[in-house]
Design a protein that fits this description.
With 258 residues, this protein is of the alpha/beta class. 45% of the residues lie in helices and 17% in strands. Strands 1, 2, 3, 4, 5, 6, 7, 8, 9 and 10 form a ten-stranded parallel β-sheet that branches. The N and C termini lie close together (8 Å). This is Probable F420-dependent oxidoreductase, MSMEG_4141 family.
């Protein structure tokens, strides 16, 4: 299955409708959507498209309010919303302490509020949070990864869990490097990339060509589509394309190709 990953402000009802018409299964909304989960217009504009958050930040979104929003969406659009949650980045959160336990506490609160395990997923990179995603949610939403990470994640998650692998696609080298530099300033992504075999020298700003090429795909449609399919071969249920340039044109180019 092929999905789309975009920052929430970029996804209008009109774009959601176009994404559905192009045959994509789901759109994942980044940018720490608020607890109000104001995605009703996107669901109302489409008929079958799944909408998911990737992710709601546990430090900024009250779990009770998030659960209330989930139930509102589930009542109006049954089975079409997935609540993705995560601990974000310590560089962006003053209260960032013991993120693993904070995730556990947030999941406990969602349990108490009746949010079903199968309707939520976790932003997970390292083994411990992947195990938590397996045990306490439908699965994992890894971001800024490679097919090698997807393979390891599937081994940890087991055969049945949801695994949505996001991957970026760009037209220009400048767009690719600018995006990667943003994430090389965030320690959790850097730690995960070290686990994948990248060296400190490669991960130092501005990032080596090998790092940029691994994290942002460029080239002709057939070549990039084949690279995206590597995530599916490695065990992902879905690969979510994040276009960095010419969003609609890129999505049209890859529709039905993965």
């Amino acid at each position: 299955m092929t999905d789309v990953w975009l920052g929430q402000p970029a996804v209008t009802p009109e774009l959601a409708e176009e994404i559905e018409k192009l045959g994509y299964e789901a759109v994942w909304l980044g940018g720490s959507p608020a607890a109000e989960l104001a995605v009703d217009p996107l669901l109302a504009a489409t008929e079958r498209l799944t909408v998911g958050t990737s992710i709601v930040n546990i430090w900024t979104a009250d779990p009770k309010q998030t659960a209330e929003s989930f139930h509102r969406l589930e009542s109006a659009f049954p089975g079409r919303f997935i609540l993705g949650i995560g601990a974000g980045h310590k560089e962006a959160t003053a209260d960032y302490r013991k993120p693993y336990q904070a995730l556990v506490d947030y999941l406990d609160a969602l349990d108490e509020a009746g949010v079903p395990k199968e309707r939520r997923a976790l932003a997970a990179l390292g083994p411990r949070v992947l195990e938590l995603a397996r045990d306490r949610s439908a699965g994992a939403l890894p971001y800024l990864t490679t097919p090698e990470h997807t393979r390891t994640a599937r081994e940890i998650l087991g055969p049945d869990a949801l695994l949505v692998a996001e991957h970026k696609v760009a037209n220009s080298a400048e767009s690719a490097r600018t995006m990667v530099q943003r994430y090389l300033r965030l320690s959790n992504y850097v730690a995960n990339l070290r686990r994948l075999g990248f060296t400190d020298e490669e991960l130092a700003l501005p990032g080596s060509d090998r790092v940029v090429d691994a994290l942002v795909l460029r080239g002709d449609v057939d070549t990039v589509a084949a690279q995206l399919r590597e995530h599916l071969a490695a065990g992902a249920n879905r690969v979510a394309i994040q276009p960095l340039d010419d969003v609609v044109e890129t999505l049209r180019a890859f529709a039905g190709r993965i």
